């Protein structure tokens, strides 16, 4: 039944570009009937440690950046029916599901493998109260498990694909802010330019990101100058001075912009003036020009404080991304909205940073979607609603199928 | 002791040797076998769903290795039965199986009664409190039965950390009863059996005749009794042990382990006496006496632990009616 359902869905989508809502709801029900398959993948992947790293070697101890989760992802992709499986030159696991028309540009489905919250020790997921509990499940074990499940689920419930489907797990992206550059290298290393990229996140079901804020994430490192007359002694005071001045910067409401001091680290003991301080700062704007202006003001403040307080100040930009916008009218966005509405999901549209920018910047149409509703994202008690998983997976499969049959090719 | 070395070498496996699930399915189908997985439960709502999901997903839906997943419940006060049924297991209340026979409570009772409702030629028992459940717990134990000539029973062993609470895992420990009670007893009377790394592990698999032709103590002594009986009936070569890597389970207090040890010793001594391997003239007491520190004093705690033993189920007429191919031993 489910096979027929998605085949009808694809055929309908191909001819008149409308979404077969009934077919998608039936797919959702079919996924729920085989709930153990998707839940099994989530549990098995989620319980594999997500220490940041890639899969570059068979010797787990030889490489400190080795990721057992990346290896699991690759091996599991092969088990679940990917026609080819391997890694790119960065060690990201990649699977290929072959379509019947290999000349078509492929669709890329990509998910980060690491979990932002990765506790020490073993991870044990639990099923209770209609939820799956597990640290790291929403960011991003669940997103990775959904992407991983595609070959098997499409085989069981979907229509044969016309174009190729590439499924990639992005490893090593959450170790620190600078690791976002690895996403750029992944995108630049793609051997075939996809017609569309779907970025899969664990949560939140209904999210739709198709434009990215311009963003700068920077570390400000304050160091005391020893033995310099008149130099500021306590870097906590210097950091406070910087923050006070940052808060005095006028932030425009249009285009929407923000400046956030997200982290401050300084000092060792109650009674000792701090010799070092580090501030983590993020500036975001929908406008590249506004971002540049805010960045200039931040740098001016840094220079001013450096000279006035006679301290060593380093303004270290970890991430600098421009604003990109696929546009509401783009066929990929329209298709995604159509699939969501067919599943009675109200698209939650907001700007995103990170992966999305790199795809859009390289002219690859891309959206970010979530596959479950959940809570306590980056805590021990993170959990996702089991019922929402099947809607999320139907959304992902519906989107891939719709893109394959039309939406991807204008 | 050359024989000991051979058994360890030839009958000790690692689960990874059996990770080719398609090969296991082929072996099962070529021999026309059916496999039943049984979870004995008592208030396992916290873990049973995950156990069933993982087994059903990997070993039923993806690879048709296990033909049925059955939960035999001792009367849980939590939602164990409802949760298990929701995830597709067949669920039975132990008291409702063979209702014409007076019921007892205990894991051994569940395992024994399970034999009546399970349909498989091979039966796999897995405890329902495993936090890190993985398909290897099943295919690792089934592998030797399906692929190694002459093996009729397989038993798990582990590197066993203990879950102290929700967050903390104690990386070493576990097996205290094994090392302080069971292995010394085996070493004294049945040295060959001391080669089982974890003779008390709750996960094992075997052909139906292994289980239906032996008696089942309903309480703590079931694993010890089973090994002694199978050893006597089939010998070491028909038994295997499989390393399933890590198993995370709930910790038990020393007092609880003391009562377990009492039950195991009771069973062991009774078997010893019955086999004629030793004589014991004195009558044994059936009460475990323990002391707990309480409000500055010691409180005496007595636990009566009876040996109640189910006979081989193959001697029960209702069982023979259901499985006419089986017959009691002469």
| Residues in helix, % of chain A | 25-40%
Largest sheet of chain B: 8 strands, mixed
Radius of gyration of chain A: 23 Å
Please estimate the helix content of chain B. Answer: 25-40%
E-strand count of chain B: 15
Structural class, from helix and strand content of chain A?
alpha+beta
Strand order of the largest sheet of chain B: 1-11-6-9-5-2-3-4
Q: Which two protein chains have the largest interface (Cβ within 8 Å of the partner's Cβ), and how many residues from each?
A: A-B, 20 and 28 residues
Distance linking N and C termini of chain B: 34 Å
Describe this protein's structure:
The complex is a heterodimer of chains A (410) and B (330). Chain A has 410 residues and is an alpha+beta fold. Chain A has eleven helices and 18 strands. In chain A, strands 1-2-6-3-7-16-8-15 form an eight-stranded mixed sheet, with helices on both faces. Chain A has a four-stranded antiparallel sheet with strand order 4-5-18-17. A four-stranded antiparallel sheet of chain A has the order 11-12-10-13, with helices on one face. In chain A, helix 2 packs across helix 11 and helix 7 runs antiparallel to helix 8. Chain B has 330 residues and is α/β, with parallel strands linked by helices. In chain B, the strands form four sheets. Chain B has an eight-stranded mixed sheet with strand order 1-11-6-9-5-2-3-4, sandwiched between helices. The relative contact order of chain B is 0.14. At the A-B interface, helix 3 and strand 4 of A face helix 3 of B.
What is the topological layout?
The complex is a heterodimer of chains A (about 400) and B (about 325).
Chain A: H1 2-16, H2 21-33, H3 35-46, H4 68-79, E1 84-87, E2 93-97, E3 107-112, E4 126-128, E5 131-133, H5 137-157, E6 165-170, H6 181-188, E7 196-203, E8 207-209, E9 211-212, E10 214-223, H7 235-247, E11 257-266, E12 276-285, H8 288-309, E13 312-321, E14 324-325, H9 331-342, E15 348-349, H10 355-361, E16 366-372, E17 374-375, E18 383-385, H11 386-405
Parallel strand pairs in A: 3-6, 3-7, 7-16, 8-15
Antiparallel strand pairs in A: 1-2, 2-6, 4-5, 5-18, 8-16, 9-14, 10-12, 10-13, 11-12, 17-18
Chain B: H1 2-11, E1 12-14, H2 21-30, E2 35-41, H3 45-62, E3 68-73, H4 80-86, E4 90-93, H5 107-117, E5 122-125, H6 136-147, E6 153-159, E7 162-163, E8 169-170, H7 176-189, E9 204-207, H8 208-212, E10 216-217, H9 222-234, E11 239-246, E12 249-250, H10 254-275, E13 287-294, E14 297-304, E15 309-310, H11 317-322
Parallel strand pairs in B: 1-11, 2-3, 2-5, 3-4, 6-11, 7-12
Antiparallel strand pairs in B: 5-9, 6-9, 7-8, 10-15, 13-14
Helix pairs in contact in B: 2-6, 3-4, 7-10, 9-10
